[in-house]
Amino acid sequence: MLRALASRMMAAHTAHPAERIEALFAGETGYATPKVDVRGAAFDAQNRLLMVREVADGGRWTLPGGWADVNLTPAENVIKEIREESGFEVSVRKLAAVWDRTRQNHPPQAFSCCKFFFICDIVGGAAQIGLETSEVGWFAEAGLPADLSLGRVLPEQLRRMFAHARDANLPTEFD
Question: Domain spanning 31-174: which superfamily?
Answer without folding.
Answer: Nucleoside Triphosphate Pyrophosphohydrolase (3.90.79.10)
